Amino acid sequence: MEEGARFPAVPAKAGHYESFYVKACQPGGGRGIWIRHTVHKRPGAEPNASIWFVLFDREAEGPRATKVTVPAGELAAPGGGWIEVDGARIGPGRAVGAVATDALEASWDLSFSGDAAPCKYLPSDRLYETRLPKTKFVAPYPDATFSGRLELDGEAIGLDRWPGMIGHNWGTEHAERWVWLEGTGFDGRPDTYFDAGAARIGLGPWTTPWLPSGMLMLEGEAHRLGGFGQIRNAEVEESAGECRFVLPGKDVVVRGRVSAPKKDFVGWVYADPKGPEHQTINCSVSDLELTVERPARPPVELTLPGGGAYELGMRETDHGIPIQPYGDG
Q1: Neighbours of 55 (CB within 10 A)
Q2: For a 10 Å CB count at each end of the chain, is N or C smaller?
């Protein structure tokens, strides 16, 4: 399966959205970055592109965030890279760019590496080429370390092997509701990562149960989570600030909780190519707790204070998280 950008091959009449994103936290947690490069194309229209930037800091009053949107002329799929938006480029091994608004000015030059194979969340490569599901996602680097420099409003921040990941998703329509749950950098477990999600899909007047998918890498063993056969056994109890979940797989069950104070979430508008919008909240310095159960083995407890990611996409607007003053699409 090709892991590069999909937007150059999208027909002019089609709608499309796509993102490549960086999530990294300082060792020990509490401070992290989230950088997103996106494409948004309405059917029959030229695409536009955006750079989204957040610095999370659990010791601060809240995240520092901004977003810049540019026309198609500032969007490219560069040779040797995945995507370039307004000069901000990301590709295998490096992310470099800058963003400047009245809210903040930030620049970054990061190198990253990781030995883990790309994480394909869908169970078959064929599903990445079919019309359904309408959202596809893969992690080219599900378990990476980042080093380099970040400058934020004149303050220099050095990154020295911050654990994190690179994600890539694309499609024609967001799910009706979704959660994203992620963790790298578990203390004493350098080869362990957890990256999973669950979605509820709108089908006319109905909405499906939670459809889980994801991966747990533990003790050198990859455990695929979710799939259509696990819908009845999956549990997701989500709210602004906390998510409790049970994600089963073959010969494994992951029970967990991810949470953070509401002040540490950032809120955004996500729009579908055809127009409807979601409100999406994200905290990439959340507290993550996992219990891994496998047959004939003792349970394994994994904790990641201030280093996990929790994202919730929803329709409601009364969640209590301020939404950034930037539209989408």
Answers
A1: 24
A2: N
